[in-house]
Amino acid sequence: MLLSWCASRSRILLVQPFCKRLLQTEAQKVGSKAIKTAERTHLSPKLLIEQKHAISRRLFTEEEDEKLLDLYKRYPKQWSKIAYELSERSPAAVFNRYKSLTSKEVFYGPYEAHEIQALKDLVAKYGEHDWVTIANEMPRKRDPLLLRRTWKEALDPQHKRGPWAEKEDNLLMTAIPKYHLEGNRVDWDGVAQDVGTRNRKQCYERFMYQLNPSHTKGPYTAKEDAAIITAVAKYGDQNWQKIKEVTGINRNTRSIFAHYKYYLDPSIDRSPWTDKETTQLIELFKKYGRMTTVKEKLNSNRSLKHMWAQYHVNRNGLRERRKEATPIKKTEKVPPPRTEEDLQRENL
C-alpha cells in the first residue's frame, strides 16, 4: 500500500525522496543479513545476495542428496555454508531435506502395492495439496514431500509416462521461449501447463538431456574423461560449473557430475559384487528401509546408485532365475522351396 501511494502521480514529486530512502533501507537490510551470514560462513556477502535471487524450489535429486550428506560431515549444522556449496538451495530447504533424509521414523524404501493404492485413495479424498494429512494416514509413515514427489512423478494420471510423441516435443520447444525468464531461467510449471501431458520435471529433463541443441549427447569420449579427471584434481569435486568452463565440455553440469561420480571417481568401489555382500545389502535394507543407512552399516565405498541397482536386481532372485533359465536354441533357417521359375533361371 505504501509503495502504491508513493507511485501516485499527484504525490510523486513530494514523496520521491522518501521512497528512495525507503528502498535504500530495504536494500541495507538485505545486505546486513548477508553480512551476518557471511561472518558465520566465511563467504562473500555479494555472493550470498546474488544466491538469494537464484533459489531453486525443484525437488532434490539423488546426486544432491548424496552431496548434502557429504557436506554435512564437513560442515555440521552450518546450513548456510552447505546451501552455498549446493547452489540454488536455501538454508531452510537444506535443513528440511537433511532432516527428512536422516529421520529414523520415516520409511524410505520401495512402495508396496497396498501403499500405492492407499496413496491414490488419499489423494482422491484430500486433493493434491494436503500432503501432511495424507502422510499421517498412510499405512507406513513416509515423508510428505516424497509422497508428493511420488504422486507427481509416478502416479498422477494426467501425466503420461514413457516415450515422448513428436507433438509433445513440438509443444515443449514452443513453450520454452514463451516462459523464458531473466538469467537464463525457465518457468517449467508454465511449460508443463502448455504441454499438458507431462509434469515440470519431465519437461525439464526432456529438454536438458534430449532436445537442448547446445549440449552434446551420447557417450563420453576418452578425451572428455581425461579433461574431467584433470579438472577435478585441480579444482575439486564441488564447483562443476567451473569444471565445465575449464574443460570446455559442451554438456550440462549435472551430466558431468553424474559421469564423474558413477564412472570416473577413484573413491567409488566398482569391483564385482560378492554373494555375501549382496545378501547383507538385501537383509540390511529390509531391516532399516534406507539405502544411506545400509551404506553406513556396510561401510561401503560403492555409490548409492550402484547399491540400488544391485538391490533391485537381486531382491526377487532375478539374477538366479536368469542363470537357471534354459537357453533358447538357435534353429537353422530353412530356405524356402524353389519354384519352377527358380529352376529355369538356374538352367539359363
UniProtKB/TrEMBL annotation:
GO terms assigned for molecular function: RNA polymerase II cis-regulatory region sequence-specific DNA binding; RNA polymerase III type 3 promoter sequence-specific DNA binding
Superkingdom of this protein's organism: Eukaryota
Keywords carried by this UniProt record: DNA-binding, Nucleus, Transcription, Transcription regulation
One of the GO biological process terms: snRNA transcription by RNA polymerase III
Xref: SMART domains: SANT (SM00717)
Domain Myb-like: 52-102, 103-155, 156-211, 212-264
Segments for region (Disordered): 318-348
Name of the featured protein: Uncharacterized protein
